[in-house]
Amino acid sequence: MALRTLLKAMRNAGGRLARRAVPTALLLLAAACEPLPAAPPANDDGPRPHSVWVVSNGWHTGIIVSRDDLAPGRVPEAADFPRAAFFEFGWGDREYYPSRQPTFGMALAAAISPSPAVMHLAGLQSLPRPVPERLEVLTLRLTAAGLDRLTASIDESFERPADGRAQSVAPGLYAHSLFYPAHGRFHLFNTCNSWTARQLAVGGVGISPSGVLTADDLMRRLRAAEGVE
After folding, report:
1. Which of 170, 210, 181, 177 is closest to 193 using CA atoms?
2. DSSP code of 72?
3. Is residue 52 classed as helix, strand or coil in its secondary structure?
4. Which terminus of the chain is more solvent-facing, meaning fewer CB atoms within 10 Å of its CB: N or C?
5. Which DSSP symbol is given to 164?
6. What is the mean pLDDT of each run of 10 residues along the chain (229 residues)?
7. Between the CA of residue 219 and those of 61, 79, 89, what are the distances in Å?
8. What does pTM read for this prediction?
9. Quick one: 57 exposed, middle or buried, by C-beta within 10 A (0-12, 13-18, 19+)?
10. Which of 159, 221, 209 minimizes the C-alpha distance to 35?
11. Sequence-ordered list of residues with C-beta below 8 angstroms from that of 201, at least 6 positions apart, any chain
């Protein structure tokens, strides 16, 4: 998400400062941060009776899971949305992602300096519908074991106090959504789309998360994977 803003700003900025600062900052980050190691995809054999969904608006991706597919006690924050039939999970920079008016400076800071993360949790009453050139929704089929691993990994992404569930830190982007503290550090080589790719690989989707930075990176790999509609 912040990466897309940076690239757009580089195209649109007319000042010499913006043209010089971004390439320099990215070079510094490239020297300081190595790409995160990625575990190989966990490919499962056997029937795939369970569905999850990946949604992309062209710059950010999220994972949607049915309430019925969350094991008891998993993602306790879901109780904040008692009427939801589905939950959408998205991970990102703690300052940039929740902002209603994200700026070029915020995007630059998020990219060049590893920063704390948040989880965006949205309670949905129905699945979103694809909108040509605006919103893409893919259906992914998982085994029972893959679904269990995926939802466990998402659950572990929340940063919680020892004695309870996470408390929201900001209003969400939708009418029924909230931001919560999350584990991990956001930076240029560890984006919202990197997080989505790693969760899917844990769940047994046949893609490698290595090198996934943008939404286009991820969706292109998913369209070519088996068990994806």
Report:
1. 210
2. T
3. strand
4. C
5. S
6. 49 35 40 46 76 96 98 97 98 87 65 85 97 95 96 97 92 96 91 96 94 94 89
7. 9, 30, 16
8. 0.82
9. middle
10. 209
11. 38, 39, 40, 41, 42, 207, 208, 209
111: tokens are 């990219």
Whole-angstrom Cα distance, residue 196 to residue 35?
A: 15
- Strand (E) positions, the chain? 50-56, 61-66, 86-93, 115-124, 136-142, 170-171, 177-186
CA–CA separation, 109 and 96 (whole Å): 9
Task: For residue 5, report the phi and psi dihedrals to the nearest 5 degrees.
Answer: -60, -40
Distance, CA of 202 to CA of 153 (rounded, Å): 8
pLDDT at site 97 = 87
* Residue indicated by tokens 């046949």: 206
Q: Which residues of 193-207 are buried (b: 16+ CB within 10 A; e: fewer)?
A: bbbbbbbbbbbbbbb
